[in-house]
Amino acid sequence: MTDMIRATGLVKRYKDVDALAGLDLAVPEGKVLGLLGPNGAGKTTAVRILATLLKADAGHAEVAGIDVAKDPDGVRARIGLSGQYAAVDEHLTGYENLEMVGRLYGMPKSRAAKRARDLLERFDLADAGDRPSKTYSGGMRRRLDLAGALVAEPPVLILDEPTTGLDVRSRQQMWGVIRDLVSSGATLLLTTQYLEEADLLADDIVVIDHGRAIARGTADELKTQTGGERIEVLLTDPARREDATRILAEVAVGDVQTGDNDRELTAPVKGGVPQLRSVLEQLESAGIDVLDVGLRRPTLDDVFLSLTGRAAEDADAPDEEVAP
């Protein structure tokens, strides 16, 4: 499978700070690569280099088979870029914004006009297409910005935290739009601060920290690396905690942990559902009532915490990297 984005050993330094310290990336044609990392990890720096907005100090990168350093114009003709903030002219209508982008790409006026109307329809903006974009909600502006990235029908899309700051409903709408793009065969590099977003949209994930890739794989592979499944039990009576702990210890592959209120027990296990079934049978036989019980797999949040030493919510601001 052809890699539509390939970067090897990317380095970018600002004085004494290494924004990138030898980053490798590869995105096969028609796939989505999610780029995760704490605030300041280097995500936006990587995006800027791949989009020809910044020159690397070392390393090599190609987009759609074109060297980003040797032929930046060729790369720009083949990518669509949507950044952390919607880049729309608020004094123009939605239609005028998209038609202008088409004209800047050198499209004939009639083709640019048709493309603008088609994209307004596709992004559920047709009814608002003739209104000034300053009247749009945040979600509408973000969809318009993404539509602008698609005017020239590029084979490669680079989305830098496209749903940052949106409410839940607008974020879910954007996820639907992005899924449609992927199903149509787009190749996508997606940086995101929302782990649910990466879990939902990305074929593969690269976690970066301090400018380096520290883990890569599918969401399931990363979760497995973090460490197995856990049985969680919430007891009705905390006085039965020791009895329940003994039952869980028989199937646990590590220590049984007790929660803050003495009713919550967590046991790391292997074997999943059969182990859960065994625990339930033994709890019932011992007359231990539970309010809740379940089998929990690691989440990407667990992966993030394990790999970077901080939870995702501690890294949920836009990527504030050192300015050149």
CATH architecture classification of the largest domain: 3-Layer(aba) Sandwich
E-strand count: 14
Helix-strand string: EEEHEEHEHHHEHEHEEHEHEEHEH
Low-pLDDT windows of residues: 315-324
The protein's oligomeric status is single chain
Helix content: 25-40%
What's the overall average pLDDT, rounded? 89
Described by strand count, sense and barrel closure, the largest sheet is: 6 strands, mixed
CATH topology of the largest domain: Rossmann fold
Shape: elongated
List the domain count as a whole number. 2
* Beta-strand residue fraction: 25-35%
Radius of gyration: 24 Å
* DSSP helical segment count: 11
Output the CATH homologous superfamily of the largest domain: P-loop containing nucleotide triphosphate hydrolases
The helix/strand class is alpha/beta
Strand order, largest beta sheet: 6-7-8-3-9-10
Give the termini distance in whole angstroms. 36 Å
- In the CATH hierarchy, what is the class of the largest domain? Alpha Beta
Structure description:
This protein has 324 residues and is an alpha/beta fold. The chain folds into two domains: 3-223, Rossmann fold; 229-296, Alpha-Beta Plaits (2-Layer Sandwich). Helices cover 35% and strands 26% of the residues. The two termini are 36 Å apart.
Based on the model shown, name its key terms.
Alpha-Beta Plaits; Rossmann fold; 324 residues; 4-stranded antiparallel beta sheet; 6-stranded mixed beta sheet; 2 domains; alpha/beta
Summarize the structure.
Keywords: Antibiotic resistance, ATP-binding, Cell membrane, Membrane, Nucleotide-binding, Translocase, Transport. The protein has helices spanning 43-50, 72-76, 94-104, 109-122, 138-149, 168-183, 195-201, 219-227, 241-249, 273-285, 300-308, and strands at residues 3-14, 17-28, 32-36, 58-63, 66-67, 79-82, 156-160, 187-191, 204-209, 212-217, 229-235, 257-258, 264-269, 290-296. With 324 residues, the protein is an alpha/beta fold.
